[in-house]
Amino acid sequence: MAVTASAPAPALDSDEAIFTQESPYALDALTEHKRNGLELAVRARWVAMAVTAAFLVYVNPEWDVLYYHFILALLCLNGWLIRRVGRVGQSRLEMLLIFADLAIMTAGMVIPNPFSSEDLPLAIQYRYGNFIYFFIILAAGTLAYSWRTVIAIGSWTVLIWLSAAFTAWWFALPQAGLSAALLEAVEGNQSLVSLVDPNDFALHQRLQEAIVFFLVAVTLGVSSRRFYQLIQNNAGLERERANLSRYFSPNVVQQLSQNDEPLKQTRRQDVAILFIDIIGFTRLAAERDAYQVIDLLRDFHGRMELEVFRHQGTLDKYLGDGLMATFGTPLAGPHDATNALACARAMLASLADWNAERRRYGEAEIHVGIGVHFGETVLGNIGANRLEYAVIGNAVNIAARLEERTRELDALIVISEALRQRVQNEGGQLDLQTGFVEHRGCELRGLTLPMTLWVLPRQADALAGSGSGR
């Protein structure tokens, strides 16, 4: 009987399971490979079984061929079960089904067809060369990148195959007269007899098959181990990319991922800086328990962060009940100031939608102050063992002071003259500046020279969403 089968994708070993606990990105990657490998293995198995079934009918057009079709059906069913129970990590049931797969294969190869009328010695079953089909199972077993399980498949196959061969050799009764008649026919040539004797199990060949198969299994296991390490390295890259996406907009992450160490270059650069803060947060927090405060901050930060990224900004840091965002970091763009002002307007529009929801649930509205400035900063990594990408300089301090002045000026947004001029130079949307009122000679804490500020009064709530692009 000639049987082909596509191997299951086996479970991962304990070392790999420990790694996936430490890295969710590795777990996701291995889960995806496992799922794809199992799906591919099952489809290949069904195709192989169908081809083999048709081939068996061609070589043995008798009713007793249905016995081998039954073996093929068992292999298909077992493959389907393996796909159902297969998962990343150790699975005893999956390993048991893999062992059953090998046992079914061996039984179909070495046990004579009980419905056949032919009376042949049992040793003949080992002369059909069916052992080569185990290599298909072994090779396909690498689809899940579990090197220990690949070696286990090789070890189990060797164990089952040799056990079956030695058991058959021990208990099988040779057909009397065949060996003697053959010896007489070849005039006592023992070497020739050992090659063609139908009663000879050729145990030395069975042992040779097992040794070669095990060596191949070890080789494929080492190869699978290298594949696993590649997944681990790729998972590390995905983790780094995900960490970048927490701070930078997707288009900036794409640029950073294509450059070598762009953040290690300390340089001066004109940047737009935005600060936003919840007004009266201390009172809000005092009226709620800690869990409610955390939920409120999560909702607030999530909405504001979305607008930062939507306007090609960088989330520099969370500041308790506020955040700092920069536009033009780590790479300057042609519309950084415009994006910063558009983001501020979009934040107000998002906040208005959120407050409408909160009013429906009888919750207090959230009010904010936003300060935006454009000026020269210094960009670069700071720290020794734990690095942080920092934006520092007087421009950052000015933006923070502008946000503070929103209380005194009863304003939604306060921007500097430098930002307004930059927006105009960039050819930004004119409606972004709608509703702003000029305030000359304003003093800011920590600065010696007064500044001209542009203020969007809090009474302009109805205009807050203008120019947000929403």
From TrEMBL:
Source organism superkingdom: Bacteria
Keyword Glycoprotein: no
UniProt domain Guanylate cyclase: residue ranges: 272-403
PROSITE patterns membership: GUANYLATE_CYCLASE_2 (PS50125)
Keywords: Membrane, Transmembrane, Transmembrane helix
The keyword Oxidoreductase appears for this protein: no
Cross-referenced InterPro entries: A/G_cyclase, Adenylyl/Guanylyl_Cyclase_3/4, Nucleotide_cyclase
Transmembrane segments annotated in the record for this chain: 65-81, 93-111, 131-147, 159-183
Protein name per the record: Adenylate and guanylate cyclase
Organism encoding this protein: Phaeobacter inhibens
